[in-house]
Amino acid sequence: MTMYTESLRAFLKPVLPYLDDEAVSEIMINGPTDVWIEKKGRLSRTDATFTEEGLIGAARNMAQFVGRMLTEERPRLDARLPDGSRIHVVIPPIARKGTTISIRKFFKEKLTINSLLKFGSLTPQMARLIEAGIATKLNMLVAGGTGSGKTTLLNIVSSLIPDEERILTIEDSAELQLNQTHVVAFESRPPDKFGKGGVDMGDLLHSALRLRPDRIVVGEVRGGEAFHLMQAMNTGHGGSLATTHANTPTDTLRRVESLCLMSGIELPMVAVRAQVASAINFIICCERFHDGSRKTSALSEVLPLTEKGDYRTQDIFVFTPVTKDEDDHILGYHAPTGIIPNFVAKAKAYGFADLDESFFDPATYGIPPPPVFHAGEAYTVRWAPSLKHREEGRPDPDHFKKEWSDFEEKLRQDARDAKAAPPVQVQVPASLPASVAKPATPPPAARPATATPPAGHAAARP
User: Fold this and answer.
1) pLDDT value, residue 15
2) Which of 167, 329, 355, 426 has the most crowded CB, counting CB atoms within 10 A?
3) Angle at 146 between CA 369 and CA 282, to 5 degrees
4) How far apart are alpha carbons 369 and 351 in whole angstroms?
Protein backbone atom coordinates (compact mmCIF):
# COMPACT_ATOMS: atom_id res chain seq x y z
CA MET A 1 0.00 0.00 0.00
CA THR A 2 1.48 3.35 -1.04
CA MET A 3 1.75 6.44 1.10
CA TYR A 4 -0.94 8.10 -1.01
CA THR A 5 -3.32 5.18 -0.55
CA GLU A 6 -2.78 5.22 3.22
CA SER A 7 -3.38 8.98 3.30
CA LEU A 8 -6.57 8.74 1.24
CA ARG A 9 -7.93 5.88 3.34
CA ALA A 10 -7.32 7.99 6.44
CA PHE A 11 -9.37 10.83 4.94
CA LEU A 12 -12.13 8.38 3.90
CA LYS A 13 -12.18 6.51 7.22
CA PRO A 14 -15.97 6.96 7.77
CA VAL A 15 -16.72 5.01 4.57
CA LEU A 16 -13.86 2.49 4.66
CA PRO A 17 -16.19 -0.44 5.43
CA TYR A 18 -18.08 0.30 2.22
CA LEU A 19 -14.90 0.76 0.20
CA ASP A 20 -13.76 -2.69 1.33
CA ASP A 21 -17.16 -4.34 0.84
CA GLU A 22 -17.18 -5.95 -2.60
CA ALA A 23 -20.99 -6.01 -2.62
CA VAL A 24 -21.08 -2.18 -2.53
CA SER A 25 -20.80 -0.78 -6.04
CA GLU A 26 -21.05 2.97 -5.42
CA ILE A 27 -20.61 5.38 -2.53
CA MET A 28 -22.39 8.75 -2.80
CA ILE A 29 -21.35 11.46 -0.35
CA ASN A 30 -23.84 14.33 -0.63
CA GLY A 31 -22.26 16.36 2.14
CA PRO A 32 -20.62 15.65 5.51
CA THR A 33 -23.68 13.97 7.05
CA ASP A 34 -25.52 12.57 4.04
CA VAL A 35 -23.84 9.37 2.78
CA TRP A 36 -25.53 6.77 0.58
CA ILE A 37 -24.39 3.49 -0.96
CA GLU A 38 -25.56 1.28 -3.79
CA LYS A 39 -25.57 -2.42 -2.91
CA LYS A 40 -26.87 -5.06 -5.31
CA GLY A 41 -28.50 -2.34 -7.37
CA ARG A 42 -30.41 -0.77 -4.44
CA LEU A 43 -29.72 2.60 -2.79
CA SER A 44 -29.63 2.92 1.00
CA ARG A 45 -28.61 5.65 3.42
CA THR A 46 -25.80 5.01 5.91
CA ASP A 47 -24.89 6.37 9.34
CA ALA A 48 -21.43 7.47 8.18
CA THR A 49 -20.51 11.12 8.82
CA PHE A 50 -17.56 13.37 8.01
CA THR A 51 -16.41 16.72 9.23
CA GLU A 52 -16.52 19.43 6.58
CA GLU A 53 -12.76 19.89 6.88
CA GLY A 54 -12.12 16.16 6.59
CA LEU A 55 -14.32 15.81 3.53
CA ILE A 56 -12.78 18.72 1.63
CA GLY A 57 -9.38 17.35 2.64
CA ALA A 58 -10.23 14.01 1.05
CA ALA A 59 -11.34 15.78 -2.13
CA ARG A 60 -8.12 17.79 -2.36
CA ASN A 61 -6.10 14.65 -1.65
CA MET A 62 -7.72 12.98 -4.67
CA ALA A 63 -7.00 16.00 -6.84
CA GLN A 64 -3.37 16.08 -5.73
CA PHE A 65 -2.88 12.42 -6.64
CA VAL A 66 -4.14 12.84 -10.22
CA GLY A 67 -2.36 16.19 -10.66
CA ARG A 68 -5.49 18.20 -11.34
CA MET A 69 -6.84 21.44 -9.98
CA LEU A 70 -9.68 21.59 -7.45
CA THR A 71 -10.33 25.20 -6.46
CA GLU A 72 -13.20 27.66 -6.37
CA GLU A 73 -12.29 28.55 -9.95
CA ARG A 74 -12.31 24.84 -10.90
CA PRO A 75 -14.82 23.30 -8.48
CA ARG A 76 -15.27 19.97 -10.34
CA LEU A 77 -12.97 16.96 -10.57
CA ASP A 78 -13.18 13.81 -12.69
CA ALA A 79 -10.53 11.20 -11.88
CA ARG A 80 -9.82 7.65 -10.78
CA LEU A 81 -8.40 6.18 -7.60
CA PRO A 82 -5.37 3.83 -7.49
CA ASP A 83 -7.68 0.79 -7.42
CA GLY A 84 -9.41 1.93 -10.62
CA SER A 85 -12.54 3.33 -8.98
CA ARG A 86 -14.02 6.33 -10.77
CA ILE A 87 -14.63 9.49 -8.76
CA HIS A 88 -16.38 12.77 -9.36
CA VAL A 89 -16.08 15.67 -6.93
CA VAL A 90 -17.97 18.97 -6.69
CA ILE A 91 -17.02 21.45 -3.94
CA PRO A 92 -18.87 24.45 -2.43
CA PRO A 93 -20.27 26.89 -3.24
CA ILE A 94 -21.37 24.97 -6.34
CA ALA A 95 -22.34 22.02 -4.11
CA ARG A 96 -24.80 23.71 -1.78
CA LYS A 97 -25.00 20.89 0.79
CA GLY A 98 -21.23 20.63 1.11
CA THR A 99 -18.50 18.76 -0.71
CA THR A 100 -20.12 16.11 -2.91
CA ILE A 101 -18.21 12.97 -3.91
CA SER A 102 -19.26 9.94 -5.91
CA ILE A 103 -17.00 6.86 -5.83
CA ARG A 104 -17.96 4.26 -8.41
CA LYS A 105 -16.20 1.00 -7.72
CA PHE A 106 -15.32 -1.69 -10.23
CA PHE A 107 -14.82 -5.41 -10.00
CA LYS A 108 -11.30 -6.37 -9.04
CA GLU A 109 -11.75 -9.50 -11.14
CA LYS A 110 -12.31 -8.74 -14.78
CA LEU A 111 -15.74 -9.73 -16.02
CA THR A 112 -16.29 -11.92 -19.05
CA ILE A 113 -19.19 -12.77 -21.30
CA ASN A 114 -19.79 -15.73 -18.98
CA SER A 115 -20.28 -13.30 -16.09
CA LEU A 116 -23.11 -11.61 -17.98
CA LEU A 117 -24.63 -15.00 -18.81
CA LYS A 118 -24.56 -15.94 -15.12
CA PHE A 119 -26.16 -12.63 -14.13
CA GLY A 120 -28.90 -13.05 -16.75
CA SER A 121 -27.84 -9.82 -18.45
CA LEU A 122 -27.90 -11.47 -21.87
CA THR A 123 -28.20 -14.92 -23.47
CA PRO A 124 -25.66 -17.15 -25.27
CA GLN A 125 -27.35 -16.31 -28.58
CA MET A 126 -26.93 -12.56 -27.96
CA ALA A 127 -23.29 -13.15 -27.04
CA ARG A 128 -22.84 -15.09 -30.27
CA LEU A 129 -24.36 -12.27 -32.35
CA ILE A 130 -22.09 -9.68 -30.69
CA GLU A 131 -19.11 -11.95 -31.36
CA ALA A 132 -20.13 -12.10 -35.03
CA GLY A 133 -20.37 -8.30 -35.12
CA ILE A 134 -16.85 -7.98 -33.70
CA ALA A 135 -15.45 -10.54 -36.17
CA THR A 136 -17.03 -8.78 -39.16
CA LYS A 137 -15.76 -5.39 -37.89
CA LEU A 138 -19.09 -3.69 -37.40
CA ASN A 139 -18.85 -0.26 -35.79
CA MET A 140 -20.72 -0.57 -32.50
CA LEU A 141 -22.07 1.81 -29.89
CA VAL A 142 -23.00 0.76 -26.36
CA ALA A 143 -25.81 3.01 -25.12
CA GLY A 144 -27.72 3.38 -21.88
CA GLY A 145 -28.53 5.67 -19.01
CA THR A 146 -26.33 6.59 -16.07
CA GLY A 147 -25.47 3.51 -14.04
CA SER A 148 -26.84 1.09 -16.62
CA GLY A 149 -23.50 -0.67 -17.15
CA LYS A 150 -22.18 0.84 -20.39
CA THR A 151 -18.50 0.87 -19.45
CA THR A 152 -18.50 -2.67 -18.13
CA LEU A 153 -20.35 -3.91 -21.20
CA LEU A 154 -17.85 -2.10 -23.43
CA ASN A 155 -15.01 -3.77 -21.52
CA ILE A 156 -16.56 -7.20 -22.07
CA VAL A 157 -17.39 -6.60 -25.74
CA SER A 158 -13.84 -5.31 -26.31
CA SER A 159 -12.47 -8.55 -24.86
CA LEU A 160 -13.80 -10.33 -27.98
CA ILE A 161 -11.41 -8.39 -30.25
CA PRO A 162 -8.72 -10.76 -31.63
CA ASP A 163 -5.41 -10.57 -29.79
CA GLU A 164 -3.36 -9.92 -32.92
CA GLU A 165 -5.04 -6.57 -33.64
CA ARG A 166 -3.66 -3.15 -32.64
CA ILE A 167 -6.18 -1.39 -30.37
CA LEU A 168 -6.10 2.30 -29.43
CA THR A 169 -8.23 3.39 -26.47
CA ILE A 170 -9.27 6.98 -25.78
CA GLU A 171 -10.84 8.01 -22.47
CA ASP A 172 -11.47 10.97 -20.20
CA SER A 173 -10.62 8.92 -17.12
CA ALA A 174 -9.11 5.48 -17.67
CA GLU A 175 -11.65 2.73 -16.99
CA LEU A 176 -11.18 0.24 -19.81
CA GLN A 177 -9.35 -2.95 -18.88
CA LEU A 178 -8.34 -4.73 -22.08
CA ASN A 179 -6.33 -7.94 -21.89
CA GLN A 180 -5.07 -7.98 -25.48
CA THR A 181 -1.34 -7.86 -26.15
CA HIS A 182 -1.22 -4.80 -28.43
CA VAL A 183 -3.10 -1.97 -26.68
CA VAL A 184 -2.18 1.73 -26.79
CA ALA A 185 -4.09 3.68 -24.13
CA PHE A 186 -4.67 7.46 -24.23
CA GLU A 187 -6.24 9.64 -21.54
CA SER A 188 -7.32 13.25 -22.02
CA ARG A 189 -6.00 16.07 -19.84
CA PRO A 190 -7.71 19.31 -18.83
CA PRO A 191 -5.85 22.63 -19.18
CA ASP A 192 -3.93 24.05 -16.22
CA LYS A 193 -4.95 27.14 -14.25
CA PHE A 194 -3.58 29.31 -17.05
CA GLY A 195 -5.72 27.54 -19.65
CA LYS A 196 -2.75 25.82 -21.24
CA GLY A 197 -1.68 22.23 -21.75
CA GLY A 198 -5.13 20.75 -22.27
CA VAL A 199 -5.47 17.69 -24.50
CA ASP A 200 -9.08 16.76 -25.29
CA MET A 201 -10.49 13.59 -26.79
CA GLY A 202 -10.65 15.18 -30.22
CA ASP A 203 -6.88 15.72 -30.12
CA LEU A 204 -6.30 12.13 -29.03
CA LEU A 205 -8.57 10.81 -31.78
CA HIS A 206 -6.58 12.85 -34.30
CA SER A 207 -3.37 11.21 -33.05
CA ALA A 208 -4.95 7.76 -32.98
CA LEU A 209 -5.81 7.95 -36.68
CA ARG A 210 -2.11 8.46 -37.46
CA LEU A 211 -0.93 5.51 -35.39
CA ARG A 212 -2.24 2.72 -37.63
CA PRO A 213 -5.07 1.43 -35.45
CA ASP A 214 -6.94 -1.78 -36.27
CA ARG A 215 -9.61 -0.76 -33.76
CA ILE A 216 -10.40 2.46 -31.94
CA VAL A 217 -12.22 2.14 -28.61
CA VAL A 218 -13.59 5.37 -27.09
CA GLY A 219 -14.63 5.22 -23.44
CA GLU A 220 -17.48 7.67 -23.83
CA VAL A 221 -18.49 10.05 -26.62
CA ARG A 222 -19.78 13.24 -25.03
CA GLY A 223 -18.69 16.16 -27.19
CA GLY A 224 -17.61 17.40 -30.60
CA GLU A 225 -15.11 14.55 -30.94
CA ALA A 226 -18.12 12.47 -32.06
CA PHE A 227 -17.85 14.04 -35.52
CA HIS A 228 -14.21 12.99 -35.87
CA LEU A 229 -15.08 9.50 -34.67
CA MET A 230 -17.81 9.26 -37.34
CA GLN A 231 -15.25 10.33 -39.92
CA ALA A 232 -12.86 7.63 -38.73
CA MET A 233 -15.57 4.97 -38.87
CA ASN A 234 -16.46 6.06 -42.40
CA THR A 235 -12.89 6.01 -43.68
CA GLY A 236 -11.81 2.41 -43.22
CA HIS A 237 -11.43 2.14 -39.44
CA GLY A 238 -14.04 -0.58 -39.03
CA GLY A 239 -14.75 -2.38 -35.80
CA SER A 240 -14.56 0.76 -33.67
CA LEU A 241 -16.39 0.82 -30.33
CA ALA A 242 -17.69 3.57 -28.08
CA THR A 243 -20.33 4.34 -25.45
CA THR A 244 -22.80 7.19 -25.15
CA HIS A 245 -25.80 8.19 -23.04
CA ALA A 246 -29.09 7.28 -24.74
CA ASN A 247 -32.12 5.13 -23.97
CA THR A 248 -33.05 3.49 -27.29
CA PRO A 249 -31.21 2.64 -30.53
CA THR A 250 -32.84 5.48 -32.47
CA ASP A 251 -32.21 7.91 -29.61
CA THR A 252 -28.57 6.84 -29.73
CA LEU A 253 -28.25 8.02 -33.33
CA ARG A 254 -29.95 11.32 -32.50
CA ARG A 255 -27.63 11.76 -29.52
CA VAL A 256 -24.54 11.21 -31.68
CA GLU A 257 -25.93 13.66 -34.24
CA SER A 258 -26.28 16.31 -31.52
CA LEU A 259 -22.71 15.68 -30.38
CA CYS A 260 -21.44 16.00 -33.95
CA LEU A 261 -23.04 19.44 -34.18
CA MET A 262 -21.00 20.48 -31.12
CA SER A 263 -17.82 20.13 -33.18
CA GLY A 264 -18.44 23.53 -34.76
CA ILE A 265 -18.03 22.14 -38.28
CA GLU A 266 -20.72 23.61 -40.52
CA LEU A 267 -22.48 20.92 -42.52
CA PRO A 268 -26.11 20.53 -43.62
CA MET A 269 -28.16 18.48 -41.18
CA VAL A 270 -28.84 15.79 -43.77
CA ALA A 271 -25.09 15.41 -44.38
CA VAL A 272 -24.43 14.90 -40.64
CA ARG A 273 -27.24 12.37 -40.43
CA ALA A 274 -25.94 10.49 -43.45
CA GLN A 275 -22.49 10.33 -41.82
CA VAL A 276 -23.93 9.00 -38.55
CA ALA A 277 -26.19 6.39 -40.18
CA SER A 278 -23.37 5.21 -42.42
CA ALA A 279 -20.73 5.08 -39.68
CA ILE A 280 -22.66 3.16 -37.02
CA ASN A 281 -23.70 -0.40 -37.87
CA PHE A 282 -24.82 -1.92 -34.58
CA ILE A 283 -26.14 -0.64 -31.25
CA ILE A 284 -26.15 -2.46 -27.91
CA CYS A 285 -28.56 -0.91 -25.38
CA CYS A 286 -28.39 -1.65 -21.66
CA GLU A 287 -30.77 -0.60 -18.94
CA ARG A 288 -30.98 -0.50 -15.16
CA PHE A 289 -34.44 -1.53 -13.97
CA HIS A 290 -36.22 -0.31 -10.85
CA ASP A 291 -35.37 -3.49 -8.92
CA GLY A 292 -31.64 -2.78 -9.40
CA SER A 293 -31.05 -5.41 -12.08
CA ARG A 294 -29.14 -4.49 -15.22
CA LYS A 295 -29.93 -6.07 -18.57
CA THR A 296 -28.85 -5.79 -22.16
CA SER A 297 -32.18 -4.47 -23.37
CA ALA A 298 -31.67 -4.50 -27.15
CA LEU A 299 -29.30 -5.51 -29.92
CA SER A 300 -30.20 -3.41 -32.95
CA GLU A 301 -28.99 -2.99 -36.50
CA VAL A 302 -28.73 0.48 -38.04
CA LEU A 303 -30.36 0.85 -41.47
CA PRO A 304 -29.87 3.54 -44.13
CA LEU A 305 -31.79 6.80 -43.75
CA THR A 306 -35.36 6.98 -45.01
CA GLU A 307 -36.17 9.06 -48.09
CA LYS A 308 -37.15 11.85 -45.70
CA GLY A 309 -33.74 11.68 -44.02
CA ASP A 310 -34.91 10.03 -40.78
CA TYR A 311 -33.02 7.36 -38.86
CA ARG A 312 -34.04 3.71 -39.05
CA THR A 313 -33.08 0.83 -36.79
CA GLN A 314 -34.37 -2.70 -36.39
CA ASP A 315 -34.21 -4.70 -33.16
CA ILE A 316 -32.68 -8.17 -33.51
CA PHE A 317 -32.84 -9.23 -29.83
CA VAL A 318 -34.77 -7.48 -27.03
CA PHE A 319 -35.45 -7.96 -23.35
CA THR A 320 -39.16 -8.06 -22.53
CA PRO A 321 -40.30 -7.46 -18.92
CA VAL A 322 -43.33 -9.68 -18.29
CA THR A 323 -44.30 -9.49 -14.61
CA LYS A 324 -42.89 -9.23 -11.07
CA ASP A 325 -42.39 -11.88 -8.42
CA GLU A 326 -43.33 -11.73 -4.75
CA ASP A 327 -40.10 -9.86 -3.96
CA ASP A 328 -40.84 -7.17 -6.54
CA HIS A 329 -38.13 -8.46 -8.88
CA ILE A 330 -38.64 -8.05 -12.61
CA LEU A 331 -39.36 -11.30 -14.46
CA GLY A 332 -38.81 -11.25 -18.19
CA TYR A 333 -36.91 -12.86 -21.01
CA HIS A 334 -34.48 -12.13 -23.82
CA ALA A 335 -35.64 -13.25 -27.24
CA PRO A 336 -34.97 -12.68 -30.93
CA THR A 337 -37.60 -10.54 -32.62
CA GLY A 338 -37.65 -12.75 -35.71
CA ILE A 339 -35.94 -10.11 -37.85
CA ILE A 340 -32.85 -11.37 -39.68
CA PRO A 341 -30.03 -8.77 -39.79
CA ASN A 342 -28.49 -7.75 -43.08
CA PHE A 343 -24.91 -8.65 -42.10
CA VAL A 344 -25.75 -12.36 -41.63
CA ALA A 345 -24.37 -13.33 -45.06
CA LYS A 346 -21.04 -11.70 -44.23
CA ALA A 347 -21.00 -13.33 -40.79
CA LYS A 348 -21.50 -16.76 -42.38
CA ALA A 349 -18.55 -16.09 -44.65
CA TYR A 350 -16.49 -15.40 -41.50
CA GLY A 351 -17.37 -18.80 -40.05
CA PHE A 352 -20.64 -18.10 -38.19
CA ALA A 353 -22.62 -20.78 -40.01
CA ASP A 354 -25.01 -21.19 -37.06
CA LEU A 355 -26.52 -17.73 -37.73
CA ASP A 356 -29.25 -19.14 -39.96
CA GLU A 357 -32.97 -18.28 -40.04
CA SER A 358 -33.78 -20.55 -37.11
CA PHE A 359 -31.21 -18.75 -34.94
CA PHE A 360 -33.38 -15.59 -35.12
CA ASP A 361 -36.71 -17.39 -34.67
CA PRO A 362 -38.19 -17.24 -31.13
CA ALA A 363 -40.02 -20.50 -31.86
CA THR A 364 -36.62 -22.25 -31.96
CA TYR A 365 -36.25 -21.60 -28.23
CA GLY A 366 -39.85 -22.31 -27.26
CA ILE A 367 -40.60 -18.72 -26.24
CA PRO A 368 -43.25 -16.30 -27.52
CA PRO A 369 -42.20 -13.54 -29.93
CA PRO A 370 -41.58 -10.21 -28.16
CA PRO A 371 -44.75 -8.08 -28.31
CA VAL A 372 -42.90 -4.75 -28.54
CA PHE A 373 -39.83 -4.00 -30.64
CA HIS A 374 -38.71 -1.68 -33.41
CA ALA A 375 -38.51 -2.60 -37.11
CA GLY A 376 -37.20 -0.45 -39.93
CA GLU A 377 -39.92 1.65 -41.53
CA ALA A 378 -40.28 1.45 -45.30
CA TYR A 379 -37.58 -1.18 -45.40
CA THR A 380 -37.72 -4.79 -46.60
CA VAL A 381 -37.56 -6.79 -43.38
CA ARG A 382 -36.68 -10.49 -43.49
CA TRP A 383 -38.62 -12.52 -40.92
CA ALA A 384 -37.88 -15.88 -39.31
CA PRO A 385 -40.06 -18.85 -40.39
CA SER A 386 -42.65 -18.76 -37.57
CA LEU A 387 -43.28 -15.06 -38.21
CA LYS A 388 -43.51 -15.03 -42.02
CA HIS A 389 -47.10 -13.79 -41.78
CA ARG A 390 -45.73 -10.39 -40.74
CA GLU A 391 -44.07 -10.00 -44.13
CA GLU A 392 -47.57 -10.00 -45.63
CA GLY A 393 -48.87 -7.54 -43.06
CA ARG A 394 -51.19 -10.09 -41.44
CA PRO A 395 -51.83 -9.87 -37.69
CA ASP A 396 -50.42 -12.43 -35.26
CA PRO A 397 -52.65 -15.52 -34.88
CA ASP A 398 -54.92 -15.83 -31.84
CA HIS A 399 -52.89 -18.64 -30.28
CA PHE A 400 -50.05 -16.13 -29.68
CA LYS A 401 -52.10 -14.54 -26.89
CA LYS A 402 -52.61 -17.88 -25.13
CA GLU A 403 -48.94 -18.76 -25.50
CA TRP A 404 -48.04 -15.39 -23.97
CA SER A 405 -50.37 -15.98 -21.00
CA ASP A 406 -48.98 -19.48 -20.46
CA PHE A 407 -45.43 -18.15 -20.67
CA GLU A 408 -46.14 -15.47 -18.05
CA GLU A 409 -47.42 -18.12 -15.64
CA LYS A 410 -44.36 -20.25 -16.38
CA LEU A 411 -42.07 -17.35 -15.45
CA ARG A 412 -43.91 -16.92 -12.14
CA GLN A 413 -43.71 -20.63 -11.35
CA ASP A 414 -40.02 -20.83 -12.30
CA ALA A 415 -39.31 -17.86 -10.01
CA ARG A 416 -41.11 -19.58 -7.13
CA ASP A 417 -39.21 -22.82 -7.77
CA ALA A 418 -35.88 -20.96 -7.94
CA LYS A 419 -36.62 -19.20 -4.66
CA ALA A 420 -37.39 -22.51 -2.94
CA ALA A 421 -34.32 -24.28 -4.30
CA PRO A 422 -31.04 -24.22 -2.29
CA PRO A 423 -28.42 -21.76 -3.57
CA VAL A 424 -25.84 -23.17 -5.97
CA GLN A 425 -22.28 -21.89 -6.18
CA VAL A 426 -21.37 -21.08 -9.79
CA GLN A 427 -17.76 -21.00 -10.90
CA VAL A 428 -17.30 -18.46 -13.71
CA PRO A 429 -14.77 -19.67 -16.31
CA ALA A 430 -11.91 -17.35 -17.23
CA SER A 431 -12.82 -17.37 -20.91
CA LEU A 432 -15.77 -18.13 -23.13
CA PRO A 433 -16.02 -21.91 -23.60
CA ALA A 434 -16.42 -23.29 -27.08
CA SER A 435 -19.86 -24.63 -26.23
CA VAL A 436 -21.06 -21.08 -25.59
CA ALA A 437 -19.04 -19.34 -28.27
CA LYS A 438 -20.18 -21.67 -31.02
CA PRO A 439 -23.35 -23.50 -30.05
CA ALA A 440 -23.83 -26.50 -32.29
CA THR A 441 -27.49 -26.97 -31.42
CA PRO A 442 -30.24 -24.58 -30.38
CA PRO A 443 -30.31 -24.10 -26.60
CA PRO A 444 -33.29 -25.19 -24.51
CA ALA A 445 -36.20 -22.88 -23.77
CA ALA A 446 -35.08 -19.65 -22.15
CA ARG A 447 -35.10 -19.47 -18.37
CA PRO A 448 -36.79 -16.49 -16.71
CA ALA A 449 -34.42 -13.56 -16.36
CA THR A 450 -34.49 -12.98 -12.63
CA ALA A 451 -33.49 -9.69 -11.17
CA THR A 452 -30.26 -10.79 -9.52
CA PRO A 453 -27.93 -7.93 -10.38
CA PRO A 454 -24.17 -8.16 -10.72
CA ALA A 455 -22.30 -7.79 -7.48
CA GLY A 456 -20.87 -4.42 -8.46
CA HIS A 457 -21.86 -1.27 -10.23
CA ALA A 458 -19.90 -2.25 -13.23
CA ALA A 459 -21.39 -5.69 -13.38
CA ALA A 460 -24.19 -5.52 -15.72
CA ARG A 461 -22.84 -2.30 -16.36
CA PRO A 462 -23.66 -4.67 -18.44
Assistant:
1) 93
2) 167
3) 45
4) 27
